[in-house]
């Protein structure tokens, strides 16, 4: 069964870790916009350099650029056949609306981890873009913009919230149970 799922949660909530596990479980490609953007920045291309400045400041890449990246990725054969686990998109209301115009979503999972815990996790993971100013900016952006996208998808009846605290295996079990109940797997 091809599952089309969007994974929400504050930065540091464990979305990347759980997305990889969900991809293996559901045999669906992991589409991580954060990884896609970091890869572009590392390549040093003109677009990559623009992305690097934005990422270093802890800001969001424009809706137009993100939509181009996502639309291209959703057209690939692996996504058409196997569905997807979308991690890091949508991050704005406009992106959420556009996403529903591009594809069908089975479920949007909100991996809920409190603010203070994600800050502690991000300080400990050692990524170059996890300096204090960028962490604060990304979390503020999540609260002021991404939660609006989540609320929009919730109004469409697509959101289920899962507790993201605990051992990774326990969180994964809760995620699978929530997703399966929404997509009709028993």
Q: In the CATH hierarchy, what is the class?
A: Alpha Beta
Provide the CATH superfamily: P-loop containing nucleotide triphosphate hydrolases
What profile does the largest beta sheet have?
Answer: 5 strands, parallel
Terminal CA distance? 12 Å
* Helical fraction: 55-70%
Oligomer: single chain
Total individual domains: 1
Q: Which shape, going by the Cα principal axes?
A: globular
Q: Low-confidence parts, pLDDT < 50 over ≥5 residues?
A: none
Strand content: 5-15%
Write the CATH architecture name. Answer: 3-Layer(aba) Sandwich
Number of strands: 5
Helix-and-strand structural type:
alpha/beta
Order of SSEs: EHEHHHHEHEHHEH
Radius of gyration: 16 Å
Mean pLDDT: 90
Any descriptors?
13% strand; globular; 5-stranded parallel sheet; Rossmann fold; 186 residues; 61% helix; alpha/beta
Describe the 3D structure.
The chain is built from nine helices and five strands. The chain is α/β, with parallel strands linked by helices. It has one domain: P-loop containing nucleotide triphosphate hydrolases (Rossmann fold, 3-Layer(aba) Sandwich). Strands 2-3-1-4-5 form a five-stranded parallel β-sheet, with helices on both faces. α1 packs across α9, α2 crosses α3 and α7 crosses α8. The protein is globular, with a radius of gyration of 16 Å. The mean pLDDT is 90.
């Amino acid at each position: 069964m091809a599952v089309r799922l969007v994974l929400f949660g504050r930065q540091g909530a464990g979305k990347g870790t759980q997305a990889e596990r969900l991809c293996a479980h559901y045999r669906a490609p992991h589409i991580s916009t954060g990884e896609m953007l970091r890869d572009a920045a590392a390549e040093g291309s003109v677009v990559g350099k623009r992305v690097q400045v934005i990422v270093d400041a802890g800001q969001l890449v424009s809706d137009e650029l993100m939509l181009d990246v996502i639309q291209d990725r959703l057209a690939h054969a692996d996504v058409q056949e196997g569905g997807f686990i979308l991690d890091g998109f949508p991050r704005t209301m406009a992106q959420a609306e556009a996403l529903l115009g591009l594809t069908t979503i089975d479920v949007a999972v909100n991996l809920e981890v409190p603010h203070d815990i994600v800050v502690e996790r991000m300080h400990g993971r050692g990524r170059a873009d996890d300096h204090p100013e960028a962490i604060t900016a990304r979390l503020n952006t999540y609260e002021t913009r991404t939660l609006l996208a989540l609320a929009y998808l919730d109004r469409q009846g697509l959101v289920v919230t899962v507790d993201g605290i605990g051992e990774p295996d326990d969180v994964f079990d809760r995620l699978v149970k929530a997703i399966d109940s929404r997509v009709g797997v028993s």
